[in-house]
Amino acid sequence: MPSDIAVTTPARQPLTQQRRVVTSIPGPKSVAMQERRLAAVGNSVGAVLPTYIERAEGSILLDVDGNQLLDFGSGIAVNALGHGRPEIADAVRAQLDDFAHTCFTVSPYEEYVAVCEQLNAHTPGDFEKRSVLFSSGSEAVENAVKIARSTTGRQGIVAFDYGYHGRTYMAMALTAKALPYKSGFAPFPAEVYRAPFPYSYRWPTGEANTLEEAFAAFVDSVHTQVGEKNVAAVIFEPILGEAGFIVPPAGYWKRVADWCALHGILVIADEVQTGFCRTGDWFASSYEGIEPDLVVTGKAIANGYPLAGVTGRASILDAVPKGGLGGTYAGNGIACAAALATMKIMDEVDAPALARTIGTKIVARLTALQQKYDVIGEIRGRGAMIGIEFVLGAGDKTPHPEMAAAFVAACHREGLLVMVTGDKKQCIRLLPPLTISDELLDDALDVMERAVATAA
User: Fold this and answer.
1) pLDDT score recorded for residue 346
2) CA 96 to chain centre
3) How far apart are CA 22 and CA 81, in angstroms?
4) Predicted pLDDT at 436
5) What are the domain boundaries of the chain?
6) Is the backbone peptide bond immediately before 14 cis, with ω within 30 degrees of 0?
7) Which of 155, 165, 360, 407 could share a disulfide with 171, CB 3.0–4.6 Å?
């Protein structure tokens, strides 16, 4: 072929934004791919649905068999703006043209600084802030603990029942759930203590007593187990994620934060899943009326690229010895470019308002469904972070994991990707893209209605 003839690749047609099932799910090509996986990938790595994806746009996942799945997992709250945003792809390509990696702790670059500026501006707190970047939420949690211990000179860290903070060792120690996250991996880092979480739906003396009794139990457990003067920090998810999107009583975190301030204890808000507009605010801590000393971020910060951060009071971050924080890939330039584009879009589209609208619609439909099926024990969450807890029903709050599994299976058969969660796997977590269309949202809710009827 003559060298002066240009070769062009035909532009791909955009995916139609509609759910479409053309084979069983998983289909034959996915089944074959699963066989390859089993022969090559460690069995300890799970999969919600072994349907293999070859392309994704908007709210749709296209699998290798040609099925178009409606994504209500968003990569576990990562793809908040949906898949394949051209603005983010353009930003990443531009960064690749400049450089892929230099290591910020060796040869720094503007993109890292700009992300930190954005985090300082968007996280709650009317005080001077600093930020540091990492590659994953677990890594950021670990570093938040390092910062708290370094700057307070104390060792104790208090976490909560039902909490999830990651799979690395300190994060596992903070996580409350043994299976599958902790079993067989002990011993864990020391000086980690646990307090009761105000799980109103299951509070022993009733929902009305949760706030007062849970706070009293928190204070008593900290005083008894470790002593206030020995606590470096209290870490919590403003809304529990892995545990089933459990929302504490209004005002609970404010009480905890005020009490911590009295005793010189730092407050660490783990906003890895709740952050970046998911709950109807940029950060869930703002809704709670608190200003955490440290905010841990990740997941949706870069809409699919590996990035995380710790943001907090300048006096705290600046007190850590130089060189004490960092990492080879931490704050990678490509991920930073994606994060800057992501946050720009979130501002432009008013992503918190989108989340609130989605949540209102989901809760309304599910509440109507709850009137027909008493196996739906509770619908909870905030914004576009909504959970369903299944129970035996008729006044019996016994967790019903079989119902949850049947619901998920029914949704998957129709091409709606949802995930089970909860301490007994009795809950469903709904995490649609914040940019989902009204038509796709209605379609998903129709599928869920049929799934409840089928499973029940």
Assistant:
1) 98
2) 27
3) 26
4) 98
5) 28-84+351-455, 88-349
6) no
7) 165
Measured between alpha carbons, how far is 142 from 43 in angstroms, rounded to an integer? 26
Q: Which amino acid is at 442?
A: D
Mind listing the pLDDT tens digit for each residue in 70-114?
Answer: 999 999 999 999 999 999 999 999 999 999 999 999 999 999 999
DSSP 355-399: HHHHHHHHHHHHHHHHHH-TTEEEEEEETTEEEEEEEEETTEEEE
Strand partners, 396: 393
Q: What is the model's pLDDT at position 448?
A: 98
Lookup result for tokens 């007190």: 319
| 397-424 as b/e: b if 16+ CB within 10 A | eebbeebbebbbebbbebbbbbbbbbbe
State the CB neighbour count (10 A cutoff) for residue 387. 24
Which residues in 66-95 are b (16+ Cβ under 10 Å) and which e?
A: ebbbbbbbbbbbbbbbbbbbeebeebbeeb
- Domain 88-349 coded CATH 3.30.70.100: no
d(CA 175, CA 421): 15
Structure confidence by residue, pLDDT tens digits, 149-200: 999 999 999 999 999 999 999 999 999 988 888 888 888 899 999 999 999 9
pLDDT of residue 7: 45
Structure tokens at 399: 């967790």
Q: Which amino acid is at 323?
A: G
Homologous superfamily (CATH) of 28-84+351-455 is Aspartate Aminotransferase, domain 1 (3.90.1150.10)
Q: What is the pLDDT of residue 6?
A: 46
Classify strands 385-393 and 427-430 as parallel, antiparallel or unpaired.
antiparallel
Cβ-Cβ contacts under 8 Å for 374 (sequence gap 6 or more): 393, 394
Extract the residue ranges of the chain whose pLDDT is less than 50.
1-9
Q: Are 401 and 425 in contact (CB under 8 A)?
A: yes
Q: What is the pLDDT of residue 10?
A: 58
Is this structure's pTM higher than 0.85?
A: yes
- Name 440's Cβ contacts closer than 8 Å, sequence gap at least 6: 17, 18, 19, 59, 70
